[in-house]
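Sequence and structure are kept together here, with a separate record for every protein. A complete record is shown below as an example:
=====
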Amino acid sequence: MILEMKVPSPGESITEVEIAQWLVADGDYVEKDQAIAEVDSDKATLELPAEVSGTITLKAEEGDAVAVGAIVCLIDTEGKPSAESKASTASAPPVEAAPAPAAVVEQTTSYASQTPSPAARKIIAEKGIDPVAIKGTGRGGRITKEDAVKAVPSMGSQPEWGSRSQDRTKLSMLRRKVAERLVAAKNETAMLTTFNEADMAPIFELRNQYKDAFLEKHGVKLGFMSFFTKAVVRALGLYPDVNSMMDGDHKIAYDYCDISVAVSGPKGLMVPVVRNAEALTFAGVELEIGRLAVKARDGKITVDDMTGGTFTISNGGVFGSMLSTPIINPPQSGILGMHNIIERPVAIDGKVVVRPMMYLALSYDHRIIDGRESVGFLVAVKEALEDPLNILMEGNAKKALEL
């Protein structure tokens, strides 16, 4: 029996995906539920599991855009695992193979790099290009159709100063969508950024005092993000226009705070959402952000994890950024940028002292948020960060941290 595997829908409004990488080769024997490919949508990268066991025939190449519901491979359920496949799953301990002679390694690598896919072979012939001159980006160095299309005939010998190579790689569908949204945010909103700074010494003191007990009680570190999230939630309550969105000629206001948190993943920037942050404790915020960060790092973040969000927090400080103007995450109306904490001399009560200072940046859509609301919001965040014990913890740190 031949099973036709079709592209499942990764989420609402997604009509196509891109084959990011085949994890198996044409003709391989695959087991049911084995991951056979990674597919990119405009929101996330997902694994495609085999629906049955059998021998696989690939019907799409890496880099191909495939419509949801289209056939990407066939699986012959009557196929049997090869002797090589059986050997790889045997329980005997692995034996290290002797290293291949250098000449053999060189020959194998050269052959792999000049093996075009069927779709690429015709294009290469028409251009009159030697396949050896093309760097394949497919599995095992295979030359894909896209590689052949982008290949340029040689313009002569290399100059005396040696080789100067280029690497042309197609952006993933997720990265292209991020780029599209960022450009749209710049072009379709009246974006403005306002700045302030916060003395982080009070938070340092609280963390140093309670970090060990917090970790022992909750199994997670007491970080900066819980303080920032709590400060943002309070400020959104005071200035609700910052927690609203434009929808044509209407304003949509929310009585809840779904905070998008920008995190770095293997496929680039991810912005998962901490739901109902206004109802979470310090421990609840840290646990949820930790859970989402692990999913993003492991490439297991889902569309649902990143859908929605009423306001975004971006922490460029973890990479050493001193100051930036973050771009709004549409259709939201505001984003708060956190930056590097640096000890600087500041004047306090007429005296110059050294304090751990952080610059804050709020980018907002001026169509819906006025200057009074934006500046007031940022001042409210600053006040909460500089007096977290009284403003965020109601004067009782142990109770707020559930210790």
User: Anything to note?
Assistant: Residues 134 and 151 are 7 Å apart (CA to CA). The chain has three domains: 2-87, 102-150, 175-400.
